[in-house]
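Changelog-adjacent note: as of this version, every example in the card shows the full chain rather than a window. The one below runs 293 residues end to end.
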Amino acid sequence: TLRSDGIPMHINTSSSRSHYEIQYLSSSEKELFVFLSMSLKKYTPIIIQGPTASGKTYSVQLFADIIGRPLRTIQLNSEITSQSIAGTFQPSKNLSMEEMDKLQEALHSISDLPNLPQEFADKIQNEDISDWLPKHFKQLRSIIQNNIDQYNASDKAKALYFIKEVDNLLQFYNHLKRTDSVIIKAMTEGSLLLLDGIEAAPADFFDRLTTLIDNNPSLNLYERGNGFFYSRDSENPERRIHPNFRLIMTYNPVDLSSAINLSPSLLSKCTIFSIRSIDSNLNDSSLIIFGFL
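Full-length structure tokens:
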């Protein structure tokens, strides 16, 4: 049990390998633990403000670990944009059923071509291509392309048909898959989301998150088309914000050399905790230093 100002917070030591680190927290960090345990009972965006090396990020990470809650973190900087909220495109290694059917048909057309490598010929004859990835079709395409001058007119036509089908179906842009951003994953799986260093993020990033900072959070990803509206009462389970989702932000009001000015409307929607510097108290400094020895 951790106490701060007489308020107990029960900690299950079996849920974390880091629970022993609690004894080395500063008094301000312990107060933050109790603050988080009370504030996270309902959805209220939280801002933890304090100077550099005051323990803001560390305390949140340790808190999440100890209570057994998943935590996703985004380290904010001046390069981050609102586009990062919608997710990114990444190459997909897998083929759809429709693509596999068309490629299977193309393979049938070359099943009797001469000089096919035995490993490919056996799989084509046995229709054993369920584990094939795009790279396997491309390897076979390259082999056939290299041998095309050795084929008669009929076989050459089959080879050219196969090459054309592989080229059409395995175009790079056809295998770009949209992956959800860290924010979307945290919302839908019910994780704690830590936006670390909000003073460094550009203003348009928070303009896109305005509705997520409301007490009844929602987010419209219009960049992805119709139907990508996330809320707690969405009828689509894939667009439903999990009831355990919580938003935590850290803010350094001292390091303002390249910082944005946080809008009063943003601050008014958040619960703010000010954490003291670890060297503001001799006892705290000694305790923390001892913990790292």
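Structural remarks: The chain has a mean pLDDT of 81.
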